[in-house]
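Protein data:
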Amino acid sequence: MARLADHLDAEELHAAVQAAHTTCAEIIHGFEGYIAHYLSNGLVAYFGHPQAHEDEVQRSIRAGLGMVKSLQNRSIVSAERRLTVRLGIHTGPVVVGEIGGGRHEALAVGETLTIAARLKDLAEPGMVVISATTARLVEGYFLWQEKEVPPREGGDQHLVAYDVLEESEARSRFDIVVKQHRLTPFVGREAEIAVLRERWEQLKEGMGQVVLIYGASGIGKSRLMQRLTEHIADEPHTRFECRCSPYHQHSAWYPITDLLTRTLALDRGITPTSTPGRISSSASPSPTRRHNGPWHSAKATRLGWEAWPMQPQPCGVWAIQRRLCSAARRPWLWPWNSLIPIVWQ
């Protein structure tokens, strides 16, 4: 922000800071974080106060990556000069209480904030830096690399820090356990496994099947599906998996966009305007069709992308269909959270 102040007058700098604060606040509130106070060149946010979640660490890092991406994609200052952000995240105990004379603000006090501020100072522009304590709590959910931290004068203990690169493909702790081959032996559930195998055999004969598995959290629904996946691993089939997310409760299309991002190998960092073109280019060659403009435009907007170009070209939806149906005449296994439709294409 100091470098930016050298190129902008006071009014322009105020507008840039206000726009950056607004963008960051939207993202932080989207992950149900709490903004303690705003600064002239940043802000301080808490996750875990006043509202607590079991995944506060994930929420804070996802919010940090979201702020970096949003500020990179928006021309808050000008087309030539963009505003970048540096973030430091640390997890630890604090004491929250009212501080101040006339203004009674609930502020946190403790070493946790001091370490977070130091991590922020270590971060390069456009990077999120986390401590080793924070990294242990989200191991497997994100990809990072260790950051060289110069020792500080005063003889304090050495700080271990990591640059967060991106989210991993893991969507739950179960995914991480499966990837690390730490599953415990499967016991029981013979009747349920028999039903799933029977439905699979019927599916291979051309009879579409829909299986609903429901039960309390932690009862073993995902493990049951994992057993079916292992059972059919050597059989030709196409598997698509959709999952809802607590971080996208206001986006009904998120499971679909996430599926397309993973299936079409799209980069999560690309801009919305380039997404339709990337979809068409990543799919198999398809006939040129003059598609229905308003319908495709509406669908693209609902999916979080901007309107498809309104001229004759390989149809975006046709390209998606060709890519998703590349394994034609194979059984499809499509788990959707607890709803598992099994269909034949």
